[in-house]
Amino acid sequence: MNLNRIKAFTLIECLVALFVISGSLMVVQGLTKLLSEDVRYINTDKTLDWQLFCGMLRRELDGSELIKVENNYLYVKKNNDLRFGQSVGSPDFRKTHSSGRGYQPMLFDIKSAEIKELDKLVKFKITFDNEQSFDMLYKFQEGIE
């Protein structure tokens, strides 16, 4: 009797292959879910944006002279007169010329910005659209010209 032997996978080999494929797909699915959660967290958490904003604002204010705080705007004099604050109806915190000309956004997606001054100590309170709120204090140096 002549038997034609065809090479093929055995049942055990097929089951092992299916197990490996399903395990690989489960790992990929888990990593995809983890990545999407991280992206969602990064997009909703404003802590990094706040830290970058504080650094930028401190560099802008270093060596400047406080003129006044009025209507939630901070007016300072460095090389020229500058104004910092949230324009009415806009979702960003801006640096402009004291007359409002020019436009340099420093922070986006904000709900409200409150600026108060007491004896050359300026307090910034920023609330983002996602209800996260942060405070910053800046003390202007005496006798800066």
UniProtKB/TrEMBL annotation:
**What compartments host this protein?**
Cell surface
Gene Ontology process terms (BP)? establishment of competence for transformation
Q: Keywords on this record?
A: Competence, Membrane, Transmembrane, Transmembrane helix
One cellular component (GO) term of this entry:
cell surface
Q: Look up the domain of life of the source.
A: Bacteria
Q: Spell out where the chain crosses the membrane.
A: 6-28
Q: Which InterPro entries match?
A: ComGF (IPR016977), N_methyl_site (IPR012902)
Identify the main location: other
Keyword match Membrane: yes
Extract the NCBIfam families matched here. Answer: IV_pilin_GFxxxE (TIGR02532), pilin_ComGF (NF041002)
The protein depicted here goes by the name: Competence protein ComGF
Q: Which organism is it from?
A: Floricoccus tropicus
